[in-house]
């Protein structure tokens, strides 16, 4: 679940973010799962890892490549599984969390007396796990959707059919999915948006969209690699049509049409760096203006069907995109639109029908785009799907097992301690005027910190879930979510609402809500353990907390005020100094990555990189304060031979150990605002005298960057 404005900054790129990982032998939450394991038919929970000094690769030099020094042994011992685009130290946690959810789902499905949300998650799970029924009936389930699309006889029918698809398939309202590029739904994105000028109000937003590939480069880059991928994409679309019953010549012609329409939309779309500037995507339009921009689309009918006709205005992310939309609507035949919309229905439904569709979808989106040879086992796909659609019903079961009140309390303390470090930092920095400092402190104090899970859970009871039709369940759950989202328009903002589910291994800062949220799923080992030593906790989860805290003050977050409004509260002098300091980081990260044949754009990743640099710094300050209060030194070797400061940096690096397939790495660099893990570790540390001192690094060595970049 994500919302309108991309600055909803999360910690991780999607490939690692689905769930979190938990507990070591000392962790207080462990008793519950251990007890559960004794029951028959319950899957055993995998063991969670945490940083252990023996993993360090002593043949490497910490001052040359600290990431390799910490991670190379672990990575060598944990090759990428054939069903994953990457491996990482968060992976055992991912499996751990999924296993907890699987046990909850099995129990719900087996409980014949189950009612309410337990019945819903049990039935949803069963409909996903029953592959025989899916294989036998998947195509028949799809047919009713294809019949609706076949009723499109001219562009006058587009609003009706498009609204139908936007309601039944993902995810027109999900305007920023796993990245900052565009909405991955047919034609355009439509959903609620917090008004950038008045954050207390929800308004309606229209986003560029209608493209299924990961980012604009995949449509527009003229290099051989992308040309090849585009050829494979068109073949994939053709195969999807053939699976749906079309003859090869017809399917080939349809695939060509789909690619033409998507490419035309890509050409008119805003690039992902420009899109990071909130002012650029804040274009208010009245209904009359929408009609003037796209006169061949009957907006009244579409908006009426979506339940958003009588709203005062719409925020359009990319006005130029509407021109391209009009051009396509005006010039394309009904047959072309049928092909395009059929593609989207089958594409978005492919994982919810028989295994032939699911396999073909994976071959392109999993293997060709991410390099992953094998699909995850069925049960893990079904856990992921239930988490995606009924996440707050399932999340309650997760919290009961994996996030006891003691964990929540300690996690809350860590967040408070890290935020206190930011208050000190703001007081001390020499580049900010008193006037701006005062405003920064007001904003900091107004930030709401939310730990673990929501106070009130979403009630899914109006979504009709059945045990034997997986596609219909996805349609029903999607329609439920669209209705819930659209209902927000015109209402006050609810700061207690979450955009991630409790088992998610991720965290986020929402600049418009002015909240920082840490799901229970990430408050686990190797990031956090109730009984893990302070240095390791601050190095791993402390950096995550610092990262989200800093987002409120990065190149995007700083443009929002304490109330979440897009308002410039910086003096021109401070803003200029900020930009100068940030440029150092942008330059440091704008580098060719020869092993993947791509170049990182430091302007795309500036916000995340600034948050990483500031985050590890805040965590350092918080740990120093904690040690001081206990009367201990960070620089005295402890029982394991390491100083607390060394263990802090090692635990940080260890929590990011990752190996990514080249295809997935390229996709991440081009479409995702997060740097690769290797850089997320080495670059911030190469800017830190505290790190260099802890490991005796000297000027001229790679882990001592010149200049030492620092914003926060
Ligand atoms: Zn972030």
Features:
12 strands, 25 helices, alpha+beta, binds zinc ion, 4-stranded mixed β-sheet, 712 residues
Backbone CA Rg? 25 Å
Instruction: Kindly report the average pLDDT value.
Output: 92
Shape from CA axes? Answer: globular
Q: How many helices in DSSP terms? A: 25
The profile of the biggest β sheet is:
4 strands, mixed
**Residue fraction in strands:** 5-15%
What does this structure look like?
There is one protein chain. By secondary structure, the chain is an alpha+beta fold. The chain is 51% helix and 6% strand. It has 25 helices and twelve strands. The strands form four sheets. The chain has a four-stranded mixed β-sheet with strand order 1-8-9-7, with helices on one face. The model is unreliable at 1-7 and 13-38 (pLDDT under 50). Zinc ion binds at residues 9-11, 547, 551, 608, 611.
SSE layout and pairing:
Blueprint: E1 9-10, H1 31-37, H2 66-77, E2 86-88, H3 91-110, H4 116-129, H5 131-150, H6 158-168, E3 188-194, E4 202-208, H7 217-220, H8 224-243, H9 248-267, E5 283-285, H10 287-293, H11 299-306, E6 314-316, H12 319-331, H13 334-349, H14 355-370, H15 378-402, H16 405-428, H17 434-446, E7 448-452, H18 470-486, E8 508-510, E9 515-519, H19 534-551, H20 572-589, E10 592-593, E11 598-599, H21 606-629, H22 644-655, E12 658-660, H23 662-671, H24 677-686, H25 689-695
Helix pairs in contact: 3-4, 3-15, 4-15, 5-13, 6-11, 6-13, 8-9, 8-14, 9-12, 9-13, 16-17, 16-19, 16-21, 19-21, 19-22, 21-24
Bound molecules: zinc ion.
The site of zinc ion has 7 residues, from strand 1, helix 19 and helix 21.
């Amino acid at each position: 679940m994500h919302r309108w404005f991309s600055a909803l900054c999360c910690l991780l790129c999607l490939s690692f973010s689905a769930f979190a990982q938990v507990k070591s032998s000392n962790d207080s939450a462990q008793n519950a799962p251990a007890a559960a394991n004794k029951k028959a038919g319950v899957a055993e929970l995998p063991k969670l890892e945490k940083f252990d000094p023996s993993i360090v690769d002593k043949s490497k030099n910490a001052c040359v490549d600290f990431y390799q020094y910490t991670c190379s042994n672990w990575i060598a011992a944990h090759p990428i599984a054939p069903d994953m685009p990457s491996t990482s130290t968060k992976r055992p946690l991912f499996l751990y969390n999924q296993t907890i959810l699987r046990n909850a789902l099995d129990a719900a499905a087996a409980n014949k007396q189950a009612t309410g949300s337990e019945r819903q998650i049990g039935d949803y799970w069963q409909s996903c796990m029953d592959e025989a029924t899916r294989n036998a009936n998947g195509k028949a389930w799809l047919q009713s959707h294809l019949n609706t699309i076949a009723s499109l006889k001219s562009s006058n029918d587009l609003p009706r059919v498009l609204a139908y698809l936007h309601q039944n398939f993902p995810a027109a309202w999900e305007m920023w999915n796993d990245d900052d590029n565009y909405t991955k739904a047919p034609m355009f994105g439509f959903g609620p948006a917090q008004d950038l000028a008045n954050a207390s109000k929800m308004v309606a937003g229209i986003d560029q969209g209608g493209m299924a590939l990961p980012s604009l480069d995949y449509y527009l880059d003229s290099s051989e690699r992308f040309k090849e991928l585009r050829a494979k994409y068109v073949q994939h679309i053709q195969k999807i049509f053939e699976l749906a019953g079309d003859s090869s010549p017809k399917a080939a012609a349809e695939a060509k049409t789909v690619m033409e329409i998507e490419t035309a939309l890509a050409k008119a779309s805003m690039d992902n760096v420009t899109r990071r500037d909130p002012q650029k995507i804040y274009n208010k339009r009245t209904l009359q203006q929408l009609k003037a921009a796209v006169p061949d689309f009957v907006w009244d009918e579409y908006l009426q069907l979506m339940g958003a006709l009588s709203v005062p205005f719409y925020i359009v992310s990319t006005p130029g995109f509407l021109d391209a939309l009009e051009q396509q609507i005006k010039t394309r035949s009904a047959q072309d639109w049928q092909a395009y919309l059929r593609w989207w229905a089958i594409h978005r439904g492919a994982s919810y029908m028989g295994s032939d569709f699911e396999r073909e979808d994976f071959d392109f989106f999993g293997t060709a785009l991410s390099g992953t040879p094998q699909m995850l086992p069925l049960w893990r796909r079904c856990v992921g799907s239930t988490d995606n659609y009924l996440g707050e019903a399932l999340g309650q079961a997760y919290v009961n097992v994996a996030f006891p009140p003691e964990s929540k309390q300690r996690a809350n303390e860590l967040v408070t301690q890290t935020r206190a470090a930011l208050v000190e930092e703001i007081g001390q920095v020499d580049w900010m005027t008193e006037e701006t400092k005062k405003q920064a402190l007001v904003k900091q104090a107004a930030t709401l910190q939310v730990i673990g899970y929501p106070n009130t859970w979403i009630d899914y009871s109006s979504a009709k879930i059945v045990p034997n039709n997986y596609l219909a369940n996805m349609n029903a759950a999607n329609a439920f979510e669209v209705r819930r989202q659209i209902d927000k328009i015109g209402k006050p903002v609810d700061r207690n609402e979450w955009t991630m589910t409790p088992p998610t291994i991720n965290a986020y800062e929402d600049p418009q809500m002015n909240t920082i949220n840490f799901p229970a799923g990430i408050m686990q080992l190797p990031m956090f353990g109730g009984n893990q030593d302070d240095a390791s906790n601050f190095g791993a989860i402390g950096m995550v907390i610092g990262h989200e805290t800093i987002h409120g003050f990065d190149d995007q977050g700083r443009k929002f005020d304490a109330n979440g409004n897009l308002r410039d509260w910086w003096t021109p002098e401070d803003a200029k100094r900020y930009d100068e300091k940030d440029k150092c980081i942008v330059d440091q990260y704008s580098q060719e990555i020869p092993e993947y044949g791509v170049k990182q754009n430091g302007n795309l990743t500036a916000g995340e990189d600034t948050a990483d640099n500031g985050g590890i710094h805040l965590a350092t300050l918080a740990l120093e304060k904690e040690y001081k209060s206990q009367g201990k030194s960070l620089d005295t070797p402890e029982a394991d031979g390491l100083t607390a400061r060394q263990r802090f940096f090692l635990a940080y690096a260890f929590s990011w150990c990752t190996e990514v397939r080249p295809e997935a790495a390229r996709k991440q660099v081009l479409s995702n605002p997060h740097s690769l893990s290797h850089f997320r570790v080495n670059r911030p540390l190469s800017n830190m005298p505290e790190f260099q001192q802890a490991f005796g690094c000297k000027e001229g060595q790679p882990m001592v960057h010149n200049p030492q970049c620092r914003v926060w």
